[in-house]
Structure formats: structure tokens, C-alpha cells
Specification:
The complex is a heterodimer of chains A (272) and B (205).
Chain A: E1 18-19, H1 21-25, H2 28-35, H3 50-78, H4 86-112, E2 122-123, H5 125-129, H6 135-164, H7 167-194, H8 199-215, E3 222-223, E4 230-231, H9 234-239, H10 244-271
Parallel strand pairs in A: 1-2, 3-4
Helix pairs in contact in A: 2-10, 3-4, 3-6, 4-7, 6-7, 6-8, 8-10
Chain B: E1 4-7, H1 18-32, E2 40-45, E3 55-60, E4 63-69, H2 84-101, H3 116-132, H4 139-150, H5 154-165, H6 171-184, H7 198-202
Parallel strand pairs in B: 1-2, 2-4
Antiparallel strand pairs in B: 3-4
Classes of the chains: A mainly alpha (272), B alpha/beta (205).
């Protein structure tokens, strides 16, 4: 079986349509919407179009879970015992099992909200971050950055379930959130163990994580203000092994990403 | 056949065709029973992408005035591309609601003044009828919207089924049904109304 499976070879049936995330960000309608006064961007029942916003996010979560399963599964397989400790591969195998369970839960939650598989397009950036040739980069890029994003997303969805009184959504997101904290902690623990005597390697891995974190703050998608649909979940990140300094740094990265997206939107508009 | 006018005539941000939309609306106007002498004005806000859906349906000076977010007609898998099935369902739903305003819903508030619970109930009543026209509909999605604004309770689920399967309802009956749901709903009062409001959004548009 082939090692390091390219994103183009992921198994998908005809229900799935792939998009590039840049296309969505450069959609001229986004700049038009940004000009309007639509109030807080937090996902709450009283926000405009809350049901369809929640449905689309739930579909995005399902796609993320599917790619997380594929990514963790590949990491279990792609590296030999001389490349990484066997215990790390066992952790990735355990994570694969968690992600497969999350896929099933997400499909059922999407159905609960009236969403069909493939109703929305798929961006494959999560799996792409899981294709790094260095296992350590996968741990920082996927486990700490992307599973960290999953913590923020699940916590936001759980709060949406709580505030909308949806007991199914709130309970399911809470269960998945607990798993995500474990996945991030695996990344944090393995990062420290694998780089215990190699600070330069650790810094390179953390730099990769910062790049992924910025990319996945998606121009203001995540942050700590009312302008951000997804809220940074500080408490759960601390439980997952993030220091306060690391969370503060991430908060700054998300603010930078938002400022850059706004500048890009303004430039697009001036050009048109 | 009702006279239909679509604004804008030319779309610049999405791949929609005003003529196609007008044609669908004319066909559906007859199917939903909108009188031929009621002109239909349809405004589509093409600046709103998925998932920013929303619509209003009013009768103003004897004309059916429908407003849609462009997202209502957008294919979720192909950005800015028109989805015929969704558009037909949304247009039929809007036309049913405008038609209702000429019959049992004459005393209903203007769309901008409806509560989210009332809007969700009215849309459930309308989409159920759209389903019986043989058009593509999304019952579970509609029920999710209904539950969000009328409660995740057995009372709300029963009310939804009554609305979905009904061919006749009046505004006062629908309002009473929402009150039943509210009485059974343990959640606190919503802080504000939610749906995309064209006037709110136009303010800085």
C-alpha cells in the first residue's frame, strides 16, 4: 500500500464536490457582506440565518472528522517503528477510532438538522496538513493546530446547542469535545517528548503550527470577539496542554488573520 | 397567469437568470392559486451567499412582494450557481405565503414584524403544501428551523406535523399554535428576532 497518500487520491463518491478555500475567501460577495451591519457574528439562535449557518457548520465538522480519520490513519501507517515510537502509532490508532465514531455522530447530527451528506462543498485543507513527511509536523499541524480548532468549533456548537435548547446537539458536541481535548493533549505530549533534546526541531514544528493556526483562523472565522463565529475555547485548550502564553499567542494570530482578511477584502473592492 | 417582475434584471455576482426565475414564478403562481390579477414583484439580494438565507413575503398595494436572499437559490456544492430545485421550492413557499395574505392571513403582521416562531410556523405550513405540489422540499430542515424557534418539545413536534399536513390555516390559528408551543417551551424568551431582515441589511448595503 502506498505511503503518504496525496489528497487527490482520497476516496469520495459523487456526492462530494471539492473546493479551494481561497475561492470562498475571494468571493466578491464576502466583501459586500462585510460592509453590512449584521451585528454579532457569534453563532446564536437569534443571529440572522442561524439554522442554515449551523447546518453548514455541522456539515463542515463532518468533513473535518472524515479527513481527521484519514489523517490519523495515515500517520499510523506512514511511519515505521524506526521513524516514530510504536506508542505514538498506538495513540494515532486510538485517535482513528475516535474520529470514525465522530464521523458517525456527525452524520447523525447533520441528519437531525436536515442536512444531507454532500449538500455543501468539501475543502480538503485538514487532510493536506496531515500529509507532512515529518511525523512531528503532523502532531503540531494536525493534533495541536487543527484538533485545537476542533476544540473551538465543538465548544461553539455545544454552546449553540445549549442556547437553542437542542439537547441532542449539546450532548453530542460535549462528548466529541472531550475526545478532541485528548487528541490535542496527545500532540502536546508527543511534541515535548520527541523534541526533549532538540529545541531547534521543536521550534520548527511550532512554527509550522503557527502557520496552520493562522491559515485556519480563516480571516476572522475564529477569535475572541463578537466578530468571530467560532470562539477560542481557552479553558479546554488549557486542559489540552496549551500554556496561557501559547493561547495568548494564538489569540494574536487570529486577530492578525482577521486584519489581513479585512485588508484583502478592501483591496479587492477598490480594485473592482 | 400572474405578471412577474424580477429585480435585478441582470445578476453580476451570481450565475442567476432573471428570466428563468420569472418563468418559474409564473408557473408556480398558478399552481399555488395566486389570482391572475395580482402582480408579483420579486427582489433578490445577490450579495448574500450561503449560508445567509432569508426571505420575506408581503402583499403591498395589491401586489405580492417577495424578497429573497440570493443564498436561498444557491447550490451548496457550487459557489454562486443557481439550483433549480431549491429555487422552485423557495419561490413556491413565498408565493403560498403571499397568497395566504389574501385569504386567511389578511390580519397577519408584515413579514419584518413577525416573530421567529411565527415565521417558522408559517413557513412549515407553506412548505408542507409545496411538498404536495410535487416540488422538492426539505422537511427535516424545516422541522429543525421550527424546533429552534418553537422548542425542542413533543408539543412543538406535534404542532409541526399539524402545520406540515394542513391545507387550511388562518393567522389566528397559527398564532395560537405558536402560543401552545411557547407555553410548553422551557427556554427563556429569545433576546431578539433572527431572520435576515432586508431593511436591516439594506441600511449599510
Amino acid at each position: 500500500m502506498k505511503k503518504i497518500l496525496p489528497v487527490e487520491e482520497l476516496a469520495r463518491d459523487s456526492r462530494f464536490v471539492r473546493v479551494q478555500i481561497q475561492d470562498a475567501m475571494l468571493d466578491p460577495r464576502q466583501a459586500k457582506v462585510a460592509e453590512r451591519n449584521t451585528g454579532s457574528a457569534k453563532l446564536q439562535p437569534e443571529r440572522p440565518a442561524a439554522p442554515d449557518r449551523a447546518r453548514q457548520l455541522m456539515h463542515g465538522i463532518f468533513m473535518g472528522e472524515l479527513q481527521a480519520l484519514e489523517g490519523a490513519g495515515r500517520t499510523t501507517f506512514d511511519f515505521d517503528d524506526e521513524d516514530v515510537p510504536f506508542q505514538l502509532k498506538l495513540d494515532m490508532a486510538r485517535q482513528s477510532w475516535d474520529e470514525s465514531r465522530h464521523c458517525e455522530i456527525s452524520v447523525k447530527l447533520a441528519a437531525h438538522m436536515g442536512t444531507e451528506i454532500g449538500e455543501f462543498s468539501e475543502a480538503t485543507f485538514l487532510y493536506e496538513a496531515a500529509c507532512a513527511e515529518d511525523a512531528l509536523l503532523r502532531l503540531t499541524g494536525v493534533n495541536r493546530a487543527l484538533e485545537g480548532l476542533a476544540i473551538d468549533v465543538f465548544n461553539t456548537m455545544k454552546e449553540f446547542g445549549d442556547s437553542s435548547g437542542d439537547p441532542v446537539l449539546a450532548a453530542c458536541e460535549d462528548w466529541m469535545l472531550a475526545d478532541e481535548v485528548t487528541h490535542v493533549k496527545m500532540g502536546s505530549d508527543w511534541l515535548r517528548r520527541l523534541t526533549e533534546n532538540d529545541p531547534e526541531r521543536r521550534e520548527r514544528a511550532l512554527e509550522f503550527q503557527r502557520t496552520v493556526d493562522k491559515l485556519f483562523s480563516l480571516g476572522g472565522f475564529r477569535g475572541e470577539t463578537d466578530e468571530n463565529p467560532i470562539q477560542l475555547a481557552r479553558r479546554f485548550r488549557q486542559m489540552a496542554g496549551f500554556s496561557t502564553d501559547e493561547i495568548d499567542e494564538l489569540s494574536e494570530v487570529t486577530a492578525e488573520a482577521q486584519a489581513e482578511a479585512e485588508a484583502m477584502a478592501t483591496a479587492e473592492q477598490q480594485a473592482s | 397567469m400572474a405578471r412577474v417582475e424580477v429585480t435585478p434584471e441582470q445578476f453580476t455576482l451570481v450565475e442567476y437568470d432573471g428570466g428563468v426565475i420569472a418563468g418559474i414564478a409564473e408557473e408556480l403562481s398558478t399552481k399555488v392559486g395566486l389570482p391572475d390579477d395580482v402582480p408579483v414583484l420579486i427582489e433578490i439580494d445577490e450579495e448574500l451567499p450561503l449560508p445567509l438565507t432569508g426571505s420575506t413575503a408581503d402583499v403591498v398595494d395589491g401586489r405580492a412582494v417577495l424578497w429573497f436572499s440570493g443564498a436561498d437559490f444557491e447550490d451548496g456544492r457550487h459557489r454562486a450557481v443557481f439550483n433549480d430545485e431549491l429555487a422552485r421550492a423557495e419561490l413556491a413557499l413565498g408565493l403560498y405565503r403571499a397568497s395566504d395574505r389574501l385569504r386567511g392571513f389578511v390580519d397577519a403582521p408584515a413579514d419584518e414584524d413577525l416573530s421567529d416562531a411565527q415565521r417558522a410556523a408559517w413557513e412549515a405550513f407553506a412548505e408542507g403544501r409545496v411538498a404536495r405540489l410535487g416540488e422538492y422540499t426539505r422537511k427535516v430542515r424545516r422541522q429543525y428551523v421550527f424546533r429552534l424557534y418553537n422548542g425542542f418539545t413533543d408539543v412543538a413536534d406535534d404542532a409541526f406535523e399539524r402545520l406540515w399536513t394542513a391545507d387550511r390555516f388562518t393567522w389566528s390559528e397559527l398564532d395560537a399554535l405558536c402560543a401552545e408551543c411557547k407555553a410548553a417551551d422551557p427556554r427563556p424568551e429569545p433576546k431578539q428576532r433572527s431572520a435576515i431582515r432586508k431593511e436591516t441589511l439594506r441600511a449599510q448595503g
